[in-house]
Protein 1
Amino acid sequence: MTEASVREFKMPDVGEGLTEAEILKWYVQPGDTVTDGQVVCEVETAKAAVELPIPYDGVVRELHFPEGTTVDVGTSIIAVAVGDGAAAEPVREAEAPAAPEAGAAPEAEAAPEGRQPVLVGYGVATSSTRRRPRKGPQAPAQAAPPAAAAIQAEMNGHGPAAPVTRERPLAKPPVRKLAKDLGVDLATVTPTGPDGIITREDVHAAVTAAQAPEPSAAPAAQAPAHAPAAPSSAPVSYDTARETRVPVKGVRKATAAAMVGSAFTAPHVTEFVTVDVTRTMKLVEELKQDKEFAGLRVNPLLLIAKALLVAIRRNPDINASWDEAAQEIVVKHYVNLGIAAATPRGLIVPNIKDAHAKTLPQLAESLGELVSTAREGKTSPAAMQGGTVTITNVGVFGVDTGTPILNQGESAILAVGAIKLQPWVHKGKVKPRQVTTLALSFDHRLVDGELGSKVLADVAAILEQPKRLLTWA
């Protein structure tokens, strides 16, 4: 077999613009035969978990990265020998990763261009981080390269690389700015990132250490030498004497970044209204018996979603986004309705495309599919892109209301509180009624108080008198 008979399968862009993905699980091992279209691994992006099929027939020669490694898009992850004699072809030494010297600058790489209650939470945004191997509490930048890479390097006859001297610590521009703002000298910071790169966490740790009069942590000998093994679908956590630390990665990391970006970019305003939804709850029970909804899940969220869609139709300027580069407000003539969902991998916001054009049964069907897919952890990246307005249902946890943070890039998010039987003045008398509290957060750059108030008032009015779904539609 010739050198050209070994094909390299590169990490694809599975999320329309994402720059990296974590290898959750390998379904094949070196020596296994694979066929065109066979799934070889599962990866997790900042948006979802995705299975990757191999695009050709052959025999697996090498897996370039272990499970738990985050790999840049465009980087080869598996070598497959194709053609006659593939099974007899030895693994090529050239494919073995070289052992980097501790603290050396990373070699330049080709970068890509360019059953708990489920309905609660916020959204995610694409990640801009680079490759970072799974690590434990020790500082890997000061340690030797991974054992597998080091052993392979010795087998290939590569001796230790010559020490590399650098004039200043390695850190990305945002980290340097953070250090400058906090008055931290990067030369005094212990790096924990790959290849000796200083991370934001390292800078914060340096600040904490400088402020502490004496170390309060347990002796180093009591800390584990490395993080314990964990299922590949979850971040590796590890215990110290009095703490458990869980690395933030994948969907949770992207969610955190998106929430910080949203909170500090868009000026949030939140308004509240408490409303009698007794008639809406009666309508829910009636629709459950309607043959048009046979086999469909009918719940209060369905009518709340429809009420919000009608309110948007009456107040279309609420359905917009802010274009910072162009300094323009972009009003959308369609509604991709996001439903915040809590999943095993974190909070995501899949959306119902063109929800404004759906009938009530169609909306019920779409909601049911969205929830089921989210619970199974199979929400696709495409399902979480392009949202315009979001609903987050904190009421499933018995919470009365909240002040939701906008899903990044959207102008409004509606939080729905628990529906409870409460004393309420109805037709001049105090009676027990089904009552809930709604909260609407909106971006005050493009939604003023009048517009936000009108939308919230319309939703409340519809839920109080659901016949308005007919008269206002």
Protein 2
Amino acid sequence: MNKTRWKDMPLARKVILAVGSIMIMMLAINVILYGQVNKTIKRMDTVYSSNVNLTELSDSLKTVQEDLYAYLSVKSSDSLENYYRSEQNYLTLLDKLSDQISSNPSKLLERNIKSMSETYVRLTGDAVTAKRSRNVEKYKELYDRSQQLYGYINSYINELNNQQFRNNSSNYQTLREMLEYLEISSLVLMSIMMGLGAMMLFGITKGMIEPLTNLAETANLVGQGNFNVKMPRTDALDEVGIVTRAFNTMVESLEEYIIRTKESMEKEQQMMEKELLMKNHLKEAQLKYLQSQINPHFLFNSLNAGAQLAMMEDAEKTCIFVEKMADFFRYNVKKGLEDASLEEELTAVDNYIYILNVRFSGDIHFTKVVDARLMDCRVPSMILQPIVENAVNHGIRNIDWEGKILLEITGTEDMIHIRIKDNGKGMSRERICEVLSGNSGEGEEQSDSTGVGMNNVISRLELYYNQKNLVDISSQGINMGTEVTLRLPRTGGKK
């Protein structure tokens, strides 16, 4: 089995093996040194702990003597409480001293201090008792004896403290020398390991860093806009060789790509700005303009028919006619800038058919089939009446047979389907395409209409729903009638 040679390994594996080996060796050395240094530091921390304890013991003894004096002088409950507290603290610290019989001078001093302290505490306690019994001579005698013993104990504590300080200083110096030796050893070993590691990494990365440095310099020039520079060609199959060839290929096409992208972005930005400007400034104006058109000729002719009817018939029919006219034009004016419910739209259609039947002696045969559940759905205003009007003027007007118009409204969960069908003149395919594309002209007959034509309805529906292809017109041919179908999203409801 052939072993993989070092130079055949991928660059990542080489770096991982080299760095991993160095890290393991450094970790091992650091763990060993850390253990020794930590052990030495702990020993150093405990060197002067005995001196600290003796100093604390001396301060506590002083506090006891002061609190005793304060109580004997004042005899207050606070001073007595302070005395008992300081006495208890002193006894607690005293328990740390050894009371074993030994030839060691330090141990002997500890035993003497502890023995004298027990006598001292007993004397101070008796003095307090005598004070509470108001035995002045006795508590003064006891206080003097405790004061004398206090001086002896304090001198013994100082002597013991000095003796332990000398011993601790010697131990501290030895431990400090040991710590300095460990520090020097740590620095030497770390320096050796770092040197070996640097040599290993230098040997591995030299062949990789140089081409990468050249690649970085070349990429910097390309970033500044100089597309005429390239990396030296190489036939190497490692990662660096692959990157070099890919970089050269990228540079060859980068300049052209940037120019094309810049031009495309500029054009797209201009188009977006124009489109946004048009939407913001024209949408509302266009919607209001398209909704507000009413041909004055229709109003004039309708009111003229009402005047003629008033002369020929009684006032009741004239009243109904005028009310229908008033309702129709009131709806048109009121809803010109609003949407409406399907129920309101159907009422406008009914009023319009009634007005026409008065004018044309009931020749308009109009039928409607509607789903009552859809009556509250909201739609743009004045969309049904213009389509019915278109069926009258361009469908059944001036035909030789009985003209009929059917308005049917059905729906699904998401859509409203409106169908307006007549049996009139029909439309050619070319004419249907013109109407749906918005290229249909205004004919002469429009002077006798409301002026809101199919182009207007289609435009307003597209603006309202922000969709196209909402209207469809079909006809079988000449004299075969016409059918207009609206497919509207069911987005409206009670307002």
Protein 3
Amino acid sequence: MKLSTQIILAFTLIILLSAADSYTNYRLSLKVNQNSEFLSKSEAVIRNSNKTHRAILQMQSAVRGYLLTNDTTYLAPYYSGIEKVPDFFVEQHTLIDSNTIQSSILDSISILHSEWLSFTSELIRARRENPKTYQFLLDTKFKKHIGKNINDSITEKFKRFEKIEYKTRAHHSEMLLHSLNKARSYSLVFLSLTIFVGICSTAYIVIMITKRINSMVRVADTISKGRFTIVRDFKKDELSALAASLNIMSRRLEKNIQELENKNEELNKFAYVVSHDLKAPLRGIYNVISWIEEDLSGELSPALRNYLNIIPKRTQRMEALINGLLDYARINRKTSPEIVDTNALVHEIAQSIVPREFKLEIINLPELVTERLKLEQVFSNLISNAVKYSKPENPYIEIKCQKVLNYYEFSVTDNGIGIDEEYHQKIFEIFQTLREKNEMESTGVGLAIVKKIIDDQGESIHVESKLGEGTTFTFTWRNNKQHEKA
């Protein structure tokens, strides 16, 4: 499965969980709203019930006060109730439109209240207009507690009405709390699942990608060190294409490097054989010239003797060039790393190369684990180069080192004739020299050998110089710590 597909699936699962969480919370929020609306309406129902009951009780008190005192001022709440109570009943019916039991109780309260109004209106009219009729009503109805029984029934029905309302209200309160708890629980569950799936999918993808990329990095690192391995990758995704390309590159590099090494080996053998075979005729030419000088010394003209003197110098230079070529061909040979005290190594080289009149300073040279022969060749050629191109007066050579990050930086400085900037790159090419071509000791091979060794080690070298102001060669060299630990 492709990485993009896996990532899309992971995100899709997270999105689905989020959508499920949102949908569940939406459904629960609807229930919460319904229960909250009911509780809010229930508060209004209770308030309206209390208000209606209180208005009826005030009407009853007003009637009793009037009947006892015959003072019409007591009837103000009574007449006010006659106007307001019917509106209260209508309002209450609107609030409880879905509850048939409460609606029937409310209707029965309304009927009883109407009966009570008929009874009291008759009493009030008789009290006001006809004392005999009033007395008759007192004896036949009032003293028999007809009004009281009606009021008691109204009170009981109001209690029953409110009891039902409180019971329903308690149920909806429980439902509201239940919905809120469910909403919290579902949110927590979905959030936990989302986080879990997100972390797991992210960790899986990151670990898988990191593991595979690290394997490719290791392969690339081994390839850079000359070991041409391949990536074992059996998945079929975007990284598989990269692994396949890396494997193809590794095989091609292995093939090309092998072919290059074979050609270099053949070229080195050819150079060695040719150089070795060229020495024989050179020695023959030198011997012939010696014999001519010995056997025919009296017969040679001055001009011919001068020519004969030039030939040995040229043959010696040719031999020096051949020896330089042989040295250049030999530098590919590998040797085992060993502990090298560069301070002692440079002192040893300087004793055999640097004349006594030179001022030599060797500063802060470290101990390394490296190929001794290669480092010795580098220092020998650089010190020899400094001696060759020194000035006659106050010659000076300084060799020092400083550690930069995980490698060492060596420098060889002289106060010699210097090098013009246009030759800073050419001097590292084989057979390139700043001296005259007929000078035997300058073959132009030494710096080419240094450059080749530095390049083969994966290091760098550069020159800083101006004509007449001396020269500094700076090169880097690493410590072979793996061998040191072993």
Protein 4
Amino acid sequence: MDLGFKDAAVLVTGGSSGIGRATAVAYGREGARVAITYNSRKDAAEAVAEEIEAAGGTAYVVPMDLGTPETIAAAVASVVEHWGGLDAVVANAVSWGTLGYDERPSKVEESRPEWWTEIIRANLEGNFHLVQQVAPALRGSEHGRLVLLSTDLAERGMAGSWAYSAAKAGLHGLAASLQHDLGADGVLVNVVLPGITLENGVHRVIPQPALERIAAGFTARHLPDVSEIADAILFLTSPRTRAIQGQLLHVTGGDLIPA
């Protein structure tokens, strides 16, 4: 099915790996002009750009630090100038903060204010700054589309994930209001919530036998791959999608089966 992305101008933040990479390449297959941002891995972003071109799209790579508003403004300005506008934006870039996974305290009183602040500023405030910068270009498109990437942790939570879960939950409220603002100019705004997500059928931390047990505990009996998250994003940002507005789309494998 032709989703209508031929020559569309698209921006995918954090496009050098994972969901961002899969989404950018998927747009490339549809013949879109795809800009991706990277923070520190320029070589990885350039490799993804080659994949986009090989898939049939046109690629453009720009640096951006989600925690630094000045770089967000510069990245968006560069892309808008390069493409002459924007039709779809996927806010996928993420900051995990400076603490390693095993370094995070499990009790909230043991957390430090600076750990909270850096996560909130990047993942919530950073995406707010991104939306501010892309809004004029999306309003000027005949089919402006915006997707914010959240996580199922925003709803189910996890010990030690207060800041990240809160930041991502904040995107739900942001989208709820943006649908009225941007929607007045024909822009659709939605949120995608991935859960445990695989890449080429594997997970970077969870071993395969455990993955199979986890997958069996969901009602779909299946954990999504990054390509399936990309499919959901393309669906929401396609010009063919016209009446889905302000929604939270869960791509998680369904609900957990009661023990």
